[in-house]
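Students often ask why inverse folding is considered easier than folding. One informal answer: many sequences map to the same fold, so there is more than one right answer. In these notes we will look at a single instance of the problem. The structure comes first.
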């Protein structure tokens, strides 16, 4: 799955060596058998972050974005609703540039995608996203967020 605007699909090379390394790592590593934490794939340019958590109601989650990295969010176990919208025009709520994370006020309209086991979504810096939202009732999820440097 790739969710994008046509102008971004033409702007970025989703089959660059960095993305290919990320996809290969996801195919070759069973996240369900990995400890939570960071795994360097290509130095600081491609890093896999393995996470385990319980999803929450969407109203408890924050809308976030990044400047320096793409997110490839891959569900290894469980499912979640994943909010996404264009970043342009959003009102900044909190900035943590040292961690490359920016939080925004939620807009009037926010789209959601159901991510199930084996699904992934690629989020560009031009998009904001709201991960870890419960699909119905909260449940345990094992996820890998691969950060791909621009």
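Output (designed amino acids):
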């Amino acid at each position: 799955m790739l969710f994008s605007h046509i102008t971004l699909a033409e702007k970025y090379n989703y089959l660059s060596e960095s993305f290919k390394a990320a996809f290969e790592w996801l195919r070759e590593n069973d996240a369900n058998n990995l400890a939570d934490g960071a795994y360097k794939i290509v130095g600081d340019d491609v890093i896999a972050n393995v996470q385990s958590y319980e999803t929450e109601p969407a109203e408890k989650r924050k809308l976030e974005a990044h400047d320096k990295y793409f997110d490839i969010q891959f569900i290894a176990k469980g499912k979640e609703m994943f909010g996404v919208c264009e970043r342009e025009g959003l009102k900044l709520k909190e900035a943590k540039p040292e961690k490359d994370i920016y939080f925004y006020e939620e807009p009037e309209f926010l789209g959601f995608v159901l991510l199930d086991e084996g699904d992934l979504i690629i989020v560009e810096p031009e998009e904001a996203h709201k991960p870890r939202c419960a699909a119905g009732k909260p449940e345990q999820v094992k996820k890998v967020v691969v950060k791909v440097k621009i």
